[in-house]
Amino acid sequence: MAGSNAIRGARVGSGPMGEKDHGARAERIQVSYWDALGNETVRSFAADVAPEEIPEQIDSPTTGLPAGRDRENPPLLPKNEPYKTHLAYVKERRTPEEAEELLEAALQKLRQRRGTARASA
Fold it and tell me: Per the similarity annotation, which family is this (predicted)?
């Protein structure tokens, strides 16, 4: 006859806590979060969680945007930098004087490294 490790009459998973204290039957509070597009996400937390442990913002699962608890003032949409064309990069280029200074500074660093490498060899 095959035996089991379970004690006769004991239910698997039962412990010092009652069933109402864990799992689907635990007391829960529901908190609503809204993103910038007006989507509502409802999250539930255990009733005994301290209010300061409930996060003020989450990422909305529907849009991926930040969502806050204030319906009237949800977090703003993140700013996306527009794609820069080659012409925009050309307009940002340094002046020839700045370019010469950068080149000279880079050459000085290389000369210093080369000098220390020859001295140690």
Answer: Belongs to the RNA polymerase-binding protein RbpA family.
pTM of the model: 0.49
* CATH entry 1.10.10 includes domain 28-68: no
Question: Collapsing DSSP states into helix, strand and coil, what is residue 31?
Answer: strand
Residue 45 near residue 51, CB atoms below 8 Å: no
Single-letter amino acid code for the residue at 47: A
Q: Report the Cα–Cα distance between both ends of the chain, in Å, rounded.
A: 81
What are the domain boundaries of the chain? 28-68, 80-116
CA distance 104 to 100: 6
Which ranges of 1-121 does DSSP label H, i.e. alpha helix?
Answer: 86-91, 96-120
Model confidence pLDDT, tens digit, residues 48-70: 889 899 999 999 988 889 999 99
